[in-house]
Amino acid sequence: MDTKKVGGNAKGMTQFHQLLIKNLKTYRKQRGYSQMKLAHLCSVSPNYIGEIEMGRKFPSADTMDKIIFALNLKPYQLFFSEEDISGVDQILQNHYEQAKSNVASYVAEALRIYQATGASGEQIQTDIADIMKNMELQSRNKSKDS
User: Fold this and answer.
1) How far apart are CA 146 and CA 134, in angstroms?
2) Which 3 state secondary structure label does DSSP give 31?
3) If I label 142, which of 10, 26, 57, 61 is the partner at 20 to 30 A Cα–Cα?
4) How far is the CA of 134 from the CAs of 68, 139, 140, in angstroms?
5) Which residue(s) pair with 4 in the sheet?
6) How far apart are CA 138 and CA 143, in angstroms?
7) In CATH, which of 2.60.40.10, 1.10.260.40, 3.10.180.10, 1.10.3720.10 is domain 4-78?
8) Which helix (H) or strand (E) segment is 56 a member of?
9) 59-85, pLDDT tens digit by residue?
10) How far apart are the two ends of the chain, measured CA to CA in Å?
């Protein structure tokens, strides 16, 4: 297990580390897990979970993945305050709702056009396949630009 020892008190810890400790304890308790139960789910010793929660050790990336999975969290949830998380969740929800609305409008407009032109079901399927390919290409290009 690759861990890094850190200062054992709040003065020696970063805000990031303090949030990790606070959130780990909070989510573990919300799930009704003891340190022993979480340790078992993560294949680490109960003492190790205790050391993390006391700020004496910082988990490796592998252990962090196991903790996130065991607690059924989104990765960012361990590193943000509740206020930040609710803000992020609201932003994501807003984007989702806007995207859903845009797609619904686009589909309604496309169907109106197809009905007006008398396009066949086969033509509609071909056009949808072309749109999906273009969307995939645009997504790949955006990923390359990032």
Assistant:
1) 19
2) coil
3) 61
4) 35, 9, 10
5) 58
6) 9
7) 1.10.260.40
8) none
9) 999 999 999 999 999 888 888 777 666
10) 33
Whole-angstrom distance, CA of residue 66 vs CA of residue 1:
13
Residue type, 49: I
8 in helix, strand or coil? coil
Between CA 66 and CA 58 the distance in angstroms is 14
Burial of 26: CB neighbours in 10 Å, binned 0-12, 13-18, 19+: middle
Tokens of 22: 């606070």
Q: pTM score, two decimals?
A: 0.54
CB-CB contact of 49 with 42 (8 Å): yes
Tell me, rounded to whole angstroms, the distance of Cα 73 from its chain centroid: 7
* 16: nearest Cα among 68, 81, 64: 81
Each residue's pLDDT tens digit, 10-68? 557 788 889 899 999 999 999 999 999 999 999 999 999 999 999 999 999 999 999 99
